[in-house]
Design goal:
Layout: H1 12-22, H2 27-34, H3 38-45, H4 53-63, H5 67-70, H6 86-109
Amino acid sequence: MVDILALPDDSIGRRLKVLMAQQNMGPGELARAAGVNATGLAHWLHDRRRPDRHNLVKLASALGCEPGDIDPRAPAQAPAPMREPAPLRLILRAFLMDHMGDLITEADKMGYEITIRRR
């Protein structure tokens, strides 16, 4: 087994290739297991681009390692869950109040709460 920490810090592609070899995974298998785009993975394997934090966590999970094993410059903590930006919620609520204000007011009076969710 190759010591991943002995590899140059700047080569994410080399680190990915070593980790893939340790797991007996090909690029297609890793892309499917991590749920990432195969073209993006090819860019990372050839050091043309760096994966963002979200994809780095997905790759690490699929390879059974930590994000720092792939990219030493990666933050130690996992990325925060993605949330819908607050301004969009406010815009949607304002739109609904403009177009359905009476219905919303009646629902509030009756104790109902109207929520907006992304599918």
